[in-house]
């Protein structure tokens, strides 16, 4: 009895081990087959999918096709219905030459086919021949046409166009396809902006005439990486790393990316400024490529610079008479006020207040011009940010008391000194705090928080004021912008404060952002590296 049980167990073990061995063999075989396919195409599976998605996109959404081949003529995609009717597995067709469907078929010549497709880049009519899985043979007229990107073949598509007696209709369809393609090419080539289309891994598949002229390059660059052909620099002539390229950000975040702050150095060593827009191409919720559109704005930058220099000159000339008015008004309101009537004192107060607003505007315009011209100085020195905040709080105390605001300042007890430019840091704190006071109704609450979160010092200014409309939040750091919901409530303000703050932080190595809900308040966040601000040489200080 025991011997029989041992025998049964032994047989079971043999069957189990045999099954495991067969399973392992099948897995190895699948891996081997997959590696052959990858070897055939010279790329990883993920890369194959990206390129196949691009080829499908070039075929056109909703277009019926039988097969798609790569630029070498090897099958890379099969219509599922055809695959099912023929009773074939994908690995029986993938990588095979399309000639297997035209061999010994009257009227089909593979050599002529490739000559037309590769040299003339025109559609070619051929007879497809094969058998369905029920054994019934078929012979059908089809059309193979090249998939072109900037006049370069990136693949082929085979489509059914009817039976053998429909050749006239097929020729007409072919002519329509040629006309449609030619129309698309003319449209893209006539666009004045540079247009570059890439696949999902940022390799160039199309580049229009304007792009070639702006970049001073040729069609031979097609197939190369966009990061190699469109090498961008920032305002400090620092080369952008590929991960920070606008197209890389667009493909990563699946959103449009716009900027006007990039530069390129052409082959003739001229440095030009570009306005750049990068967008992902999304098909069926998947990214199949990207489009980057750019134009030369060097002349526009020169005009902006000339206007900035004019504003700087005009503002500087205005400071002297405004200072004189302010000085004499203070003199009359002080020592000589005993002989003035109440009405005359009111007139002097109005003159003084109006003059102070003008001085504030002139100073803001001067600061903007110095920021844009790059002539301002950043001089870091060991600074206690807590002391700066307390100093600003003392300055704004009259406004706080007038509006009966509650202000809370929270900070870590032991905050080290940080290398900052105290003038610029004070300007940042003052702008954020005065904005919070100005745009918070009476008896509101304002909170200032100062903390460390390695590697940054974080300043947070919160209020429960008017907030910023969600449809205008993307403009809050732009020059001269003021949100609609505060214009009727507070007519004072230049719309330059936050623009200046962000410009300073961008150049000093810091950052600023905000969270806001209309009617509930706003919180601004400022980060400064604990290692300090970046020093900058210049000729002017910000006031």
Automatic annotation (TrEMBL):
Subcellular location(s) per record: Membrane
PAS domain span: 51-120
Keyword Membrane: yes
Keyword presence, Lipid biosynthesis: no
Domain Histidine kinase: 313-532
SMART domains attached to this UniProt entry: HATPase_c, HisKA, PAS
Topology term for the membrane: Multi-pass membrane protein
Major location category of this protein: membrane
SUPFAM superfamilies assigned: ATPase domain of HSP90 chaperone/DNA topoisomerase II/histidine kinase (SSF55874), Homodimeric domain of signal transducing histidine kinase (SSF47384), PYP-like sensor domain (PAS domain) (SSF55785)
EC nos: 2.7.13.3
Transmembrane regions listed in the UniProt entry: 12-32
InterPro entries the record matches: BphY/WalK/GraS-like, HATPase_C_sf, HATPase_dom, His_kinase_dom, HisK_dim/P_dom, HisK_dim/P_sf, PAS, PAS-like_dom_sf
Matching PROSITE patterns: HIS_KIN, PAS
Record protein name field: histidine kinase
């Amino acid at each position: 009895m025991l011997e029989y049980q041992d025998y049964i167990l032994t047989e079971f073990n043999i069957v189990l081990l045999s099954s495991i061995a067969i399973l392992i063999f099948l897995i190895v075989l699948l891996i081997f087959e997959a590696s052959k396919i990858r070897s055939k195409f010279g790329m990883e599976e993920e890369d194959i999918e990206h390129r196949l998605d691009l080829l499908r996109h070039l075929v056109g959404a909703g277009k019926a096709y039988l097969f798609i081949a790569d630029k070498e003529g090897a099958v890379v995609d099969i219509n599922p219905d055809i695959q099912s009717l023929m009773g074939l597995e994908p690995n029986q067709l993938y990588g095979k030459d399309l000639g297997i469907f035209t061999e010994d078929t009257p009227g089909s010549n593979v050599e002529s086919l490739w000559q037309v497709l590769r040299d003339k880049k025109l559609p070619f009519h051929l007879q497809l021949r094969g058998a369905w899985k029920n054994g019934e043979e078929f012979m059908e007229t089809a059309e193979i046409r090249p998939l072109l990107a900037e006049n370069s073949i990136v693949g082929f598509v085979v489509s059914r166009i009817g039976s053998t007696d429909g050749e006239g209709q097929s020729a007409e369809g072919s002519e329509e396809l040629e006309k449609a393609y030619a129309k698309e090419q003319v449209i893209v080539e006539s666009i004045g902006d540079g247009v570059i289309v890439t696949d999902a891994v940022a390799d160039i598949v199309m580049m229009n005439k304007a792009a070639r002229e702006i970049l001073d390059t040729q069609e031979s660059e097609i197939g190369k990486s966009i990061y190699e052909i469109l090498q961008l620099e920032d305002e400090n002539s620092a080369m952008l790393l590929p991960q920070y390229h606008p197209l890389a950000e667009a493909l990563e975040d699946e959103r449009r990316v716009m900027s006007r702050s990039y530069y390129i150095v052409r082959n003739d060593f001229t440095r030009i400024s570009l306005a750049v827009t990068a967008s992902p191409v999304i098909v069926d919720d998947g990214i199949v490529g990207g489009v980057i559109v750019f134009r030369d704005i060097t002349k526009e930058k020169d005009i902006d610079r000339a206007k900035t220099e004019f504003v700087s000159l005009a503002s500087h000339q205005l400071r002297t008479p405004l200072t004189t008015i302010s000085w004499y008004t203070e003199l009359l309101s002080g020592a000589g006020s005993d002989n003035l009537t109440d009405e005359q004192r009111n007139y002097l107060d109005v003159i003084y207040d109006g003059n102070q607003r003008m001085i504030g505007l002139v100073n803001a315009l001067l600061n903007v011009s110095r920021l844009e011209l790059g002539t301002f100085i950043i001089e870091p020195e060991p600074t206690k940010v807590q002391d700066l905040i307390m100093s600003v709080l003392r300055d704004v105390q009259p406004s706080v008391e007038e509006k009966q605001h509650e202000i809370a300042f929270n900070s870590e007890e032991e905050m080290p000194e940080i290398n900052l430019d105290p003038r610029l840091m004070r300007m940042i704190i003052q702008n954020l705090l005065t904005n919070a006071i100005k745009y918070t109704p009476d008896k509101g609450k304002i909170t200032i928080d100062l903390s460390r979160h390695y590697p940054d010092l974080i300043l947070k200014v919160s209020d429960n004021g008017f907030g910023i409309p969600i449809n205008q939040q993307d403009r809050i750091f732009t020059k001269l912008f003021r949100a609609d919901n505060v214009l009727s409530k507070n007519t004072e303000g230049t719309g330059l404060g936050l623009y200046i703050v962000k410009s300073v932080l961008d150049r000093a190595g810091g950052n600023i952002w905000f969270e806001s809900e209309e009617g509930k308040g706003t919180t601004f966040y400022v980060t400064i590296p604990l290692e300090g601000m970046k020093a900058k040489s210049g000729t002017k200080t910000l006031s």
